[in-house]
Design brief:
The structure is a single chain. This protein is of the alpha+beta class. The chain has one domain (about 5-175): Nucleoside Triphosphate Pyrophosphohydrolase, CATH 3.90.79.10. It has 4 helices and 8 strands, in the order H-E-E-E-E-H-E-E-E-H-E-H. The protein has helices at about 5-15, 60-75, 135-140, 155-175, and strands at about 25-35, 35-40, 50, 50-55, 75-90, 95-105, 115-120, 150-155. Strands 1, 2, 3, 4, 5, 6, 7 and 8 form an 8-stranded mixed beta sheet that branches. The radius of gyration is 15 Å and the shape is globular.
Length: about 180
């Protein structure tokens, strides 16, 4: 809990430097295995999220996703379907490319960026899942047609929700 204010400053700096959404391309994976979905616990703003990260300039989104998921979780995945593009405006503006994936190898493990990784049944997702990941999860798990294109606004409600989730996660011992 004592580290929380430092982590929040890091997140605030990241969010305020957002710049043009077109310049920040993230990739995220809905990794499914045996009717469970893989979630990663975020390091600096504690809460569960879809694994993934930032694509390097010029890097193919699917290649970036495979690299990021392996770095964060230890798993090798195969992207099997593009779920959609999520343009998030406001705090920490970015565009996220989301893919359904299946694991093909590796060993599940935590990393410096993700202090915990775990499998969850879609009907029992943790209450500390950041709300901006629920839409892509529902899109990935529901009927098509895909890919979706969604516009989302991350305003004060999203910031307050993120802080509430961070505090709840730390209070429960993941901090």
């Amino acid at each position: 809990m004592l580290r929380a204010p430092l982590d929040w400053l890091e997140v605030a700096g990241w969010g305020m430097r957002g710049g043009a959404p077109e310049g920040r391309c993230l990739v995220q994976g809905v990794v499914m295995s045996e009717a469970r979905v893989l979630l990663a616990l975020r390091r600096e703003l504690r809460g569960w999220e879809l694994p993934g990260g930032r694509a390097e300039p010029g890097e193919d989104a699917a290649v970036a996703l495979v690299r990021e998921i392996r770095e964060e979780t230890g798993l090798v995945v195969e992207p099997i379907e593009r779920v959609g593009e999520y343009r998030r405006r406001g705090f920490a503006s970015h565009t996220a490319q989301v893919f359904r994936c299946r694991p093909t190898g590796g060993t599940l493990r935590a990393s410096d960026d993700t202090p915990a990784v775990a499998w969850f049944r879609p009907d029992t997702l943790p209450d500390t899942l950041f709300p901006w990941f629920r839409g892509p999860l529902l899109d990935a798990l529901g009927p098509g047609p895909r890919p979706f294109e969604r516009e989302e606004r991350l305003g004060l409600a999203a910031i307050a929700s993120g802080l509430r989730i961070d505090l709840a996660t730390r209070w429960r011992g993941h901090g």
